[in-house]
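Reviewers of the previous submission asked for a worked example of the structure-prediction workflow described in the proposal, so we include one complete record here. The input consisted solely of the amino acid sequence. No template or homolog information was supplied to the procedure at any stage.
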Amino acid sequence: MTTHFIDTTDATFENDVLRSTLPVLLDFWAPWCAPCKAMAPMLERIATQYEGKLRIVKYNIDQSSDSRARFNLRGVPTLIAYRAGKELGRQAGVSASGLKLLLDALLSGPETHVDPGTRTFGNDPARKARCVARIREAIADGRLDGKQEGDGDSLPSTIASGQMPDGDRLDALGLPPAIDALYNHLYEMLSDSPDGTQFAADFLNAVPVGVDLSAIARDYLLWILNDLLDRTPLEDEATPLLAKLIQLHRLESNSDAIPPAQWEALLARIKEKLNTVDGHSAVILTTISPVARPASSIPPAAFFPLIQTAVSLAVIHVASTWWTEEEAEVFDSTNRSMAPFMKSLGPRPEETEALAEYERKKQQFIDDAWAKAYSICPTLEKQRQLRLDAIVKTGHNTRTSHAQYLLGRVAEV
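From that input alone, the workflow returned the following structure tokens.
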């Protein structure tokens, strides 16, 4: 373990995290978690870059059987930002845009206030020209091609502003926090194709000089909530609560004052229902609970799971009409057979030889299972690949639609 990180335990957690005099980025990880290992180089760079300004503390969830419930973790890796013992925000999964939000919260200072009325590019056309030029330069030299492993320093808004490693900005973009976060996140989600690079350039070009974009985050929130409602079956137990949430946000967008008690009552109903449902209903309710509040108080990171849930709902029924009953049954039974085998393999080992044997056994089982399925149902192999291709295409098209909405809405201002 690098000396830049601190390994904490249940016994030392209070001293390492809650009583730390420096802001803390707490990394929940596990030895068997491949994404956790992928995130390690990003955390290493951050620890070096911000040495003396924050501390990175790592918590191995395998050390405690109740860690997931105690810290309300949905999975690993999960990063939580703490200052003075209080949680400022969290990010699940490997996301440079989410990581940037946590760093901004940790390093901005406890009294920082972002004025939602800040004018784009400081009302200065020359500043916009410099910011756009930096994006074009980054595209030309490959820093925005989506292939490099990066952290917050390789995201469009950071590059465009000319932000230095010590956090100083040469040219603030003047974007509200949620719009800045969405600019980065949508680029990141599309960065596996040329669409990501194109979006990074097109968005900044579309932002007018000297305007207030604070209303766009609220409009986008209503757009994505309605998209979720359209994709959720009427009989789903999450549907009435999602519809009520849309109603409150729509009233608020029309300048109606929503009493705090109404937001609190809706959030209580969402949490109560979460205790009785699972599957897609639970995913939707978990996703919308952070936005059951006035739009002005919604943290930017709350938009990320909304996008992910919209994408997952879009692909869940992709190409279902391609399956015959026989193909569907063979496909489902093959997938079901995977779970007990994966469980029998146990935790993913760290040792090189043991890990190689683990991966060999896993891949051999998967190959054998699908070979058996293809022998039972000869049409399955082609249909499975067609379905997988359609899922990838649908997911990408859904993410692109979010980028297109944001671009179109910005251009209307």
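Residues 68 and 74 are 7 Å apart (CA to CA). We consider this example representative of the routine output the project will generate in years two and three.
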